[in-house]
Amino acid sequence: MGVDSKPEVSVIIPAKNGGALFGTVLEKIFAQQVSFPFEVVVVDSGSREEDLQMIRRFPVRLHQIPPKEFNHGLTRDVGASLALGKYLVFLNQDAVPIDEHWLARMVESFQQSDE
Fold it and tell me: Cα separation of 63 and 83, whole Å?
């Protein structure tokens, strides 16, 4: 996504101490082949510094909350409120996209229904 582009899709991920697997998830997300701009919003609830450093290696929008504020639903609501995309895609930190077309296929049917 270009710096000045408004994202069509926001991928929202609650996270805490995701480790190497979360790094793989982020690599797979940013390897997506899509025809639209997208962003990744990570809502972190108290990860270790090494996990935060790993997250910061990717062009994500990182929002941190105290661990005591984590709640499965409310934390996703926080991510949604920060999202700029028309379509919101929620993932877990350990949900590895199957291939580089996963996001395009997921959003395609919504885009078609908007036409």
Answer: 11
Question: Between the CA of residue 86 and those of 10, 38, 57, 99, what are the distances in Å?
Answer: 7, 10, 25, 23
CB 82 within 8 A of CB 104: no
In order of 18, 44, 60, the CA distances from 113 in angstroms are: 35, 33, 28
- Residue 34 in 3-state DSSP? coil
CA distance 27 to 93: 12
Question: What pLDDT is stored for residue 115 in this prediction?
Answer: 64
Angstrom distance (rounded) from CA 16 to CA 48: 8
CA 109 to chain centroid, in Å, comes to 20
* Mean pLDDT to the nearest integer, 4-25: 95
Strands 61-64 and 38-44: parallel
Whether residue 52 contacts residue 93, with contact meaning beta carbons closer than 8 Å, is answered with no
Please provide the size of the chain in residues.
115
